[in-house]
């Protein structure tokens, strides 16, 4: 006798819901624009925004990749340049796909002047998902009693150099305790 096993139903994720509502909103806006200016002009506007998105993606993407390459050659952390490259890729994808709401969001991600808004929203969303102990600054209390002497220049991440870097022993403390 064969038995069947059914996996428990998974709840719909917020991302899938947001994508579905976004697609529905795109269709509604597209129909409204087509009824306002006509289907031919709407198709031309869609093609124009896709072409504009491709051009902006090429220009801003080249700048972002150049910045990443320069930081790699100088052995510096990618920092904000890596986030900008990701936002530019997302913005280019949103602008190349048909739809006016996606074009607007893509334009926010592609233009350097407006890129701060999506960056802040994404950072806020990521911080909200992190556990409390991983948020904010991490305080370290040193257990070393003697002074540490080091190089004149501050330490910079990069390839290993001759000689050891000084190590400061310590422990991570959950909260800052001022004496």
From TrEMBL:
Top-level taxon: Bacteria
Keywords assigned: Membrane, Transmembrane, Transmembrane helix
Keyword NAD on entry: no
Presence of keyword Acetylation: no
A cellular component annotation (GO) from this entry: membrane
Bilayer-spanning residue ranges: 14-33, 39-58, 79-98
Matching InterPro entries: FxsA (IPR007313)
Pfam families (UniProt xref): FxsA
Region spans: Disordered: 143-179
Protein name, as recorded: UPF0716 protein FxsA
Species for this entry: Modestobacter marinus
